[in-house]
Automatic annotation (TrEMBL):
Binds 1 [4Fe-4S] cluster. The cluster is coordinated with 3 cysteines and an exchangeable S-adenosyl-L-methionine. CDD domains: Radical_SAM. This is [FeFe] hydrogenase H-cluster radical SAM maturase HydE. S-adenosyl-L-methionine binds at residues 165, 184. It comes from Candidatus Caldatribacterium saccharofermentans. InterPro entries: Aldolase_TIM, Elp3/MiaA/NifB-like_rSAM, FeFe-hyd_HydE_rSAM, HydE/PylB-like, rSAM, rSAM_sf. GO terms for molecular function: 4 iron, 4 sulfur cluster binding; metal ion binding; transferase activity.
């Protein structure tokens, strides 16, 4: 009976590409193999319909692992004294961006913990310089003041990633001792008004996270109409307060893929990465993501020895890979799946409503 109802929801999704939060919860709870299989197949078809077969590559540079915050789940949290910290200099970062651009990568993602060492003005000058390499620039450096976001946008930054992690207010508060739910969303508003393409996202399999909370995330993704949404499994880090919350990896993988698939169907043209966390959770995780709605991959270009020190969670894949190796690895992955590598910048195209 349960599976019949789920089939009904799938019919609805196939035709209307929309459903209620309750209906999302029903599908998230369902473990019926045929239902799950049909959901994934549908998401793959919608991905092809709305964003095609091309996979966009976003070159990732993790330039500092210092963070002023203490998010309960994250290995970069300030109170993790075991972590060896690093900061790349502007010159080091620029030389790296030049090399990435020369490889034909069209987007560079500059990511770090929340590190005030990188002041707004020199950062703007840096962005201005990197823009001349004719790449799209995505920033992922957390919460800052509106004037800083504005300065960076003027300097040429194109996109900004700032994940909500969960849209459940209570869970958000429990996980983020330094953060306010509405302040985070206010940042999103500011960024959007400044003309950034904005990205959000969540973690799946967090302690105390219910299917209802995940359904809410998906509805919020749809409501906010984000340009990019990063959906990844929570992977416990032993040197954090949540280090002991384990869950069967395959179960967590399936749940993450369901969230990804449903997000594709409801948001249509949003850019969805097959995350490194998904590839870390289970072998072939990213490939499975690409077949359940994802259309983006993020090759890691962080130089050694820093790469192994950006341990937001343990066991991260690609850490041992030689510099530039992820690019060829991903090209092969995409080809094997019968897909192509995008040659354009991969800006998000809004669906016609
Ligand atoms: N497992 C998976 N993802 C994590 N992140 C942080 N900690 C973890 C973890 N333990 C992700 C969050 C955050 C980014 C820095 O990394 O989504 O946005
Ligand atoms: Fe810092 Fe981001 Fe990790 Fe929170 S999730 S501790 S803000 S790096
Ligand atoms: Fe990094 Fe395969 S993508 S090693």
């Amino acid at each position: 009976m349960n599976s019949r109802t789920c089939e009904d929801v799938l019919d609805l999704l196939e035709e209307k590409e929309d459903c209620t939060e309750e209906e999302l919860t029903l599908l998230l709870r369902c473990e019926e193999p045929q239902v799950v299989h049909r959901l994934f197949t549908l998401a793959d078809a919608k991905r092809r319909k709305y964003v095609g077969d091309a996979v966009h590559l976003r070159g990732l540079v993790e330039f500092s692992n210092f963070c002023r915050k203490n998010c309960l789940y994250c290995g970069l949290r300030k109170e993790n004294r075991k972590l060896k910290r690093y900061r790349m200099s502007w010159e080091e970062m620029y030389a790296l961006c030049e090399r990435i651009a020369r490889l034909g990568v069209k987007t560079i993602v500059l990511q770090s913990g929340e590190d005030p060492w990188y002041e707004a003005k020199p950062f703007a000058e840096f962005i201005h310089r990197v823009k001349k390499l004719q790449v799209a620039i995505t920033l992922s450096v957390g919460e800052r003041e509106p004037w800083e976001y504005a300065l960076w946008r003027d300097a040429g930054a194109d996109r900004y990633l700032l994940k909500q992690e969960t849209f459940d207010r209570e869970l958000f508060a429990r996980l983020h001792p330094d953060d306010d739910y509405d302040t985070r969303l206010e940042c999103q508003k500011v960024l959007r008004e400044l003309g950034y393409q904005v990205g959000s996202g969540n973690m799946v399999g967090l302690p105390y996270q219910t299917p209802e909370a995940l359904a809410l995330d998906i509805k919020k993704f749809q409501e906010w109409d984000f340009d990019m949404i990063g959906i990844g499994p929570f992977i416990p880090h032993p040197d954090t307060p949540l280090g002991h919350f384990t869950m069967d990896p395959e179960k967590k993988c399936l749940l993450t893929l369901k969230v990804l698939a449903l997000t594709r169907i409801l948001t249509k043209t949003t850019n969805l990465p097959a995350t490194t966390a998904l590839g870390t959770l289970v072998p072939g995780g990213r490939e499975r993501g690409l077949r359940c709605g994802a259309n983006v991959l993020m090759p890691n270009f962080t130089p050694h020895p820093y790469r192994s020190q950006y341990t937001i969670y343990p066991g991260k894949i690609c850490v041992q890979e030689a510099w530039g190796g992820c690019l060829s690895c991903m090209k092969e992955m995409v080809t094997k799946l019968g897909r192509t590598i995008a040659t354009d910048y991969g800006d998000r195209v809004r669906p016609i409503r």
